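Recall the central idea of this unit: under ordinary conditions, the amino acid sequence of a chain determines the structure it adopts. In this exercise we apply that idea directly, starting from the sequence alone.
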Amino acid sequence: MRIFMRRGTAARAVAIGAWLALAAGCRDRGEQPKGDEQIDVGTIARNVELRLYVATDWAWNEEDTLRVTVVNGTDQPLAGAKLNLFVGSPVDVRVDSAAANANSAPRPEMMSSGEGTRVIFSIGTLAPGQSGEFAQAIRTPPAPRPPLSEERDTSTSFPVRAWVTAADQRELAAAQDTIRIRPGSDVVVGGCGGIKDVSVTRYGIGPVRLDMKASDVRTLCPEARDTTWRGQEGMPEKGLAVALAKHPVLLVLSNDRISRIVVDTAGLRTGAGVGVGATLADLRARYAVLCTGQGDGGVALWSPVAPGISFGLDTAATAEWSTRRLPPDSLPEQAKVTSMWVRKGDDTCPPAQQAR
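Accordingly, the structure predicted from this sequence is:
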């Protein structure tokens, strides 16, 4: 992955390696695997070192990079191992589109849940004494407004764990650390149009978050304007129209709180780099699993690895689907995303609606 390290910021490294005196004794015996004999995983575990680097100075709504080094201290090649990196919610794990399109290395796997996101890198083969470097770009969440003590994501610290597994899934080495938000790094109140560099996440966009009160939005974004329209069933709906990073966004209100955030113009993107104008082929390239359903009068797509975000497709994909409820892999790759919305609700796929 591409590296985005903050300038002038110290980083701490956490390394755990099982360097046992017994290992030295075993090596002195000169015992080596013969032929196709499998290397003893316990021996490898005593000699594989994992170093996790986490910056010490973080702010809300900020992008930076986690770095991991895996060192093969054994006297045998380390093959088939994987690096697992877990980042606690609601930190957003970013996808490097350049790395995702590269042919030189497989794209990391991603799995998300309410607890956080797990990224799995294929280490490949490390020769004795060789090390592998891995980096993962992430973005911290927008500052909570207002602070709600009952919400899990109002914390100012988020766990990071890394571990290496052998080809047989046994753990070889592990390390952990914490992303800590520094005091006073809240998003400045007083206008949303000038905010720069925001992304669409499962919790909101920039400083605007799901469940935020309309009165707090008006304080945060004085330029917000009331708007009303008729919904799918002809019922009146109301919301607020705002501009985030100069891009128009609709905040749908329910009981005077944001229940959904709608984006229907190009410019804003998810952490995976997908926005309005992207094709279904783009979605398939970035998300391992896609689900389909009805949404806002057309086909809606979502993915368990990108929870809380749905994508609406253009009419090229809706005509036949509306009567047959086709699975995602039957939809045309040229179909385009015409809208995105941040919402609550279930992110799982029915078995018949899964496609890889």
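The longest strand covers residues 78-88.
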